[in-house]
Amino acid sequence: MLLKRLELVGFKSFADKTILEFPGGIAGIVGPNGSGKSNVLDAVRWILGEREAKNLRGDKAEDLIFAGTQKRPRMGMAQVSLIFDNSSGFFPVDFSEVSIVRRIDRDGISQYFLNKAEVRLKDIIDFFAKARLGTHGLTVINQGESDLFVKSTPKERREMIEEILGLRQYQIKKQEAQRKLKNTGINIDKVRVMLDEIGPHLRFLKKQTAKWEKLGETEKELNDLESVYFKNKLKEIFVGLEKFSPRLKEIDTALVHKNSELKVLHEQLSKVENSRPSNKAQLDSLQLKREELLNKKSVLEKELGRLEVKIEFSSNTEVDPKKAIVVLNDLKSVIKNLSEESDLIKIKTVLNEIFSKIDNFLQFGNEAGVSKELAEFKASKDKLSSQLSEIIKELENLKKMEFGFSADLESFNSEFRKSFQLVEAKKDEIAGLESEKNRIHFDTERFNLRMQDLETQISQAGKNINELKAGLENIEAVNIFEAERRIFKLRAEVASVGEIDQALLNEAKETETRFNFLSTQLADLEKASNDLSTLIKDLDIKIHNDFSSSLGKINEEFNKFFQLMFGGGKGKLYLEKPEPKKQVLPDEGLADEAQQAVKEPEADEEDDELSAGIDLELVIPRKKIKGLEMLSGGEKSLVSIAVLFALISVSPPPFLVLDEVDAALDEKNTRRFAELIKDFSKKSQFIIVTHNRSTMESSDVLYGVTMEEDGVSKVLSIKLD
Ligand code: ATP
Fold first, then answer.
1. DSSP string of 522-590?
2. Mean pLDDT to the nearest integer, 112-130
């Protein structure tokens, strides 16, 4: 026993709180026409999740609430509760008793409660679907609907079977997945459209901003390279300047030293100058005297020559003239030679020779008788010779004196020259050092100018020279020429980019963020879409497999019940090609999210096999049936009831609510029906509205419904013996 109780309050004709207890088995509901029996059935159908007003025999949701009578005012709300015993754990909830409540007020607000916790209609439908209960199948068969299965479409028949097989829960899941898939598809399309719109604009913006983004890199490279370049240049200048300083000190020290040496050398030179010999004047006068003596000597010689010529002439008067001429000519040539001779010794020798020759000749003359004149001549000659000898002697003395004087002068000159050369050499050394010093000063100045130029460059590059100067020891060495070329190129690149438009950069950033967000969203949606498609396929397979495997068993049972009811023949259910889709319009009053979920198109056309409807193949004894429409009303009910019994024998639901299903049956079949439900009541509970005695007799509990003058239905429990 699962269904324990049904409670009604304000529902249709049940204004007062009415409780129907179901002890198990069959509960018969009896009563006069119009007393409210079918309203009980409506209540069950409504709480199972019925959404269509017409299936509840009303036009609108409000029709479910007690409308009031002349004696009773109308009510503001209707409420129906079903209470189940869940001690067996049949329902997958953690309660030993489960109560489902549905409530509606006149504002059309509908509420659902599962054990007092408010839930959605979708949850209720899902809850019952898992329990093989619902409004699409044969759980609740309304009055006059005993032939429901036969007169339904193949598709509706399939739904009925699926519901009772407990497959409806998967159909609901599938429909939900399909709805989500459709919405996901719509969202995918929307996102794609947005991406298509944003894409070209983003490309345009990126093209615009790419050069600015690259500018950052270029500026960084330029900045880094400039720093390294300037550091190298600074280091080069510092190293250059550092080199000069010690050399300048060396030069200055050397100059002090050399200048003092020069001073000493100057003093030495002065000393030498001061030691110049003082007898030069005497030497000069000696030379003058010598020239004087030489002139005198020349005059004497000439005089002597003339005298000798005279002597010879005088001697020739006694001598052979030819011999005299020879002697004179001989003397003449000797004297001539003597006049050119400057050597006094030679002159003296030659003069003695001349005297000897003259003496020889004169001796010859004396021999021949020398005259007085000749004697005078000879005396003069002797005098002259003696004078000449004196002069020659004097000249020799002079020469000796002169030689002494010139030796002193030469030694002075040598000393002077030496000192002078030392002074000059020192001056040259000093000049060399001065010139090097000047060159260093010049180079220093050159480096200073380079430094000034570099400082200007550094400041123009917007850098701080003090920062650059720090840590010059460990800088990366660069090829200055290459670095200058690269800096020039990078500066040109930076200059060519132009000004950054911050607004455009921001727009590009925002657009890219949005594009990435949409791309991620698209990927998520596509994944969700794939997951949903997979889920739908899996559900299809599950439904298809469960349905196919059950259909055989159902047919076995159907054929059995068919033969039982028709006394033979044959009945078979088979899969049919699906009919074109039927548009189902939602009920306004009961529309909500769950309703949408349930009303989506069920299957794709291509899934023919999976959504195929159910058709009937019947062979009735002694009759030739061409179509179901040929069956009589009773036959249609018998076939439908045979199907119902086949279904509940394969998959019994917790309960069934049947409203005068037996009405169309003849007496024999009514008894058979009563026996069968008695049989099935061991597995499923039955709530049966009936006027039939056999059915009443098979009931375990009987409720009598009455309606008195106040127009309110009342329920009486009738004890059966
Ligand atoms: P029958 O045996 O002829 O089928 P029944 O016992 O099944 O009759 P119901 O159809 O359940 O009778 O009840 C119909 C009665 O319920 C009517 O008298 C009708 O006035 C009453 N009724 C239906 N809806 C409401 C409502 N909203 N408020 C009050 N009474 C209502």
1. HHHHHHHHHHHHHHHHHHHHHHHHHHHHHHHHHHHHHHHHHHHHHTS-EEEEEEEPPPPPPP-PPPTTT
2. 93
